[in-house]
Structure formats: C-alpha cells, structure tokens
Amino acid sequence: MLPKDKFDDSNIEKLKNLSDGELEPLIPELLTWLQDYNWPVAEGVLRVLTTRENLVFPHIEEILESDDLMWKIWIMDLLIPQFSHEHKLELKERIEELMTLSGTDEDTQAVIGFAKACYEKCFV
Questions:
Q1: CATH number of 12-123
Q2: pTM of the model
C-alpha cells in the first residue's frame, strides 16, 4: 500500500480507508514522503496523514530533531498548522527553539523563517 516512488499515488484512497491499527505501522514511512512536498505523491500522503493526527503526532518531535532541514520545513509549513491546539502546544517549545537556531547559511535561515511562520500560524 505504500507508495513505490514519488509518482505513485495509486493507493492513497486505500490508505485513507485503513483502520488506525492497520495504518499505524505505515506512518513513519508515509512521513518520509513529506521530505519534499514537490514530489507528486506528497499531496495525497498529506491528506492521509492529516486525518490521523493522533497516529502522526508521536513522530513529529523526532523529525523536528533530525538533521533533515527540508523535512522540518515541510512539516512546519504543512502538517503542524493543521494539528489540534493541544498538539500544537506540545510542540511550541521545539518550534521556539528552531526560531532561535544560530547559523547564517541559507538552509538554517530557511528553517528559522518557517519556524517563525509556523509559530505565527499556530500561536498568534
């Protein structure tokens, strides 16, 4: 049922119809398809993940602590703003930390900018 490549959205509707128990082990792999939202499959995967916030949320902190700057950006831009207020509050401190990263390189500055935008969407 998982996408085979960045163009494979053939099972998105089937994924939406899985029970929580069936979908839960697939969540980590599905989240990897949000590492680049420019991939055609990413939009469909996002639709699946936003309907199962309780299954997705436990994996978000790990992504925000990863070294994958683009993945962090996509998660902050597309997924976290759709979370419940309760889950957003649980991530507030981590988002604040990302807003204060040090570094002048373009990627770090992008993470800082998206963290600030995420914070504004979620808490202002």
A1: 1.25.40.750
A2: 0.91
